[in-house]
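Go through the following before class.
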Amino acid sequence: MASSDGGIYLKQLELGPMQNFVYLVGDPVVRECVVVDPAWEIDTIVDTAARDDMRLVGALVTHTHQDHVGGSLASWGMPGRIPGVEELLAKARAKIYVHKAEREFLPGLGSDLVKVDNHDTLAVGRLTLTFLHTPGHTPGSQCFLVDGRLISGDTLFIGSCGRTDLPGSDPSEMYYSLTQRLGALPDDTRLFPGHNYGGPSSTIGDEKRHNPFMRFPALGDFLRAMGRA
């Protein structure tokens, strides 16, 4: 899926065997873009940006699980590696933006790595992108808000949310991320998730009305539903 209405360039690519969505987001006038979660098929990502005459200047990391940044699959009990950000850096002059809580999980990138925090902003051509810290799935999970569009990684899916039973997960933080941090956004905010588990896009308003994980009235109810109370 792609859109370019003169104000924003947004391309959604479903890549890899885990239904990951990778995004190219940028300014169609200045012709600069960033990529979100470049773990899979790096040549496809770089070639797509080049074919659309967009210069790739950065990579945004929603969180540092291997299916979003690449790396060894040994921790999942699987052989092999996912190429990820290291291969991207070999093909494009790009900075890697990761939440400061997960900086330690991307060693060896040196000056190419940029630590960010909640409500930091990044200029992409004429666009301003805002980093939103949404812990729960991981301590440094973050979403990206630009021009009324939210790229939500593994925090919020269409009809569901990210897992909270993994190392570093926190179901209490997930509840607040869903109901307060993201729930406070305007209802017409377009939602673009990190996996194709329920479709390619939605709105915050539709998720607040229909996504059961955004509808629990209290933290205790959410924790019981997640098996943590």
Remarks:
- The mean pLDDT is 95.
- The chain has one domain: 2-225.
- The first strand starts at residue 2 and ends at 4.
